[in-house]
Amino acid sequence: MGRIVFTGGTVVGAEGSFDADVLVDGERIVAVGTDLPADGAERVDVSGKLLMPGFIDGHTHMDMPFGGTVTADDWDTGTAAALAGGTTTIVDFSLQDVGGTLQEAVNTWHEKASGKARIDYGFHVAITNLTDEVKAEIPRLADLGVSSVKIFMAYKGTPLYAEDADLFEAMQVAREAGVLVMVHAENGDVIAKLQEQALAKGNTSPVYHALTRPEEAEAEATNRAIQLAEIAGAPLLVVHVSCAAALEPIHRAHELGQTVYAETCPQYFAFSIEDLKKPDFEGAKYVCSPPMRDAWNREPLWRGLQLGDLQIFGSDHCSFNFEGQKDLGRDDFTKIPNGCPGVEERAQVLWSLGVLEGRISENRFVQVLSTNQAKVHGMYPRKGTLAPGSDADLVIWDPMLDTTVSTANRHGNVDYTPYEGLTFHGGPSEVYVRGESAYRDGEVLAEAGSGRYVERRFMKPEI
Ligand code: URP
Ligand code: ZN
Ligand code: ZN
Fold first, then answer.
1. ipTM, 2 decimals?
2. Taxonomically, which superkingdom (predicted)?
């Protein structure tokens, strides 16, 4: 690893785009501009390409036990897929065991990631049991480099589900500790009841996954979480917002000046409830929570991204094979493991459907994929910007690159892709992680284990 100067490209940042060279020394960016002191540096000609800060995905699930099985991607294959999509840092969800501590959750996730991750990474902790010990641990999360906890208002009947009292108290403790609370906002009680009623009527096929998780159940829980956060005085991050109804309380909160961050995901722009109706159980490939919605929701979600109500675009990559995993629910949709792969496709979906369709600018693209992610997830300015002193995580984006997705050209470990046959225009041709070429022209170059843990600190950013 040495000095590299990227020449002839256009730097695309959160604030604007400009023609400039980028000089890297070792793991860091040292200069961005023209006429850089680059004597002796290796020259990489990026004419005709865009230079962007490495993408950050604050929402992945690697090697995670869920729904009676374990995700298909571990930290090796999942981070290979991430790299192929231009992602240089992920923040993954470590899960507290019901009888365990947050420290143990973080330790377990370190064991899973260590020696396997090909990109940099951090951990959230999903709280499943708010014991007195856990409450005492939250203020110490900073010592572990963890700046965020997730609480599930859904998945009633599983250890993940939390009652309002625990959600609210976690918000109070987190506020004092300077830790960000993230919520999976769907009304778990209503969904459990609707599922029970559907199964009693013999409605077992995948589309009932969506029909028993109505938009209003997400909207209600989103509003409830926002109101509880207001009472607790806590900043909030609502993850995987899927529909217009859930966006409404977020918009209202912003009008009232409340600190509410919100994330949406590629699957809600690429797919709809119609995909869950595919025959031969193919609909199971599109089962995730919240579910795919009626397609009309997409335009309001785009507006949310344009206007700033939705500030980050994460993948919620949670991959299960069709054979042997999704098919656990052939006779009962509630047994289909929830989740879809998307870490590899995230940026290309947003570029093709967002930037090329004129819905968002290339700078908004960088904000929601990288800069805002770094800010919300407590890694800015080390990550999320091409600036002197920042880690040399770079995406060389080729606007002329066409990719037709197939399972065969994916870099993860899943036996299908929901994006099969879709063609994306524009994509990453080369990716650098801390000054090392980690991906080039379809090939993952970074070694398993080369990724490093990133300590994070929540700074309540204004975005
Ligand atoms: O279906 C999903 N989203 N699975 C992953 C777990 C979660 O709720 O984020
Ligand atoms: Zn969730
Ligand atoms: Zn998730």
1. 0.98
2. Bacteria
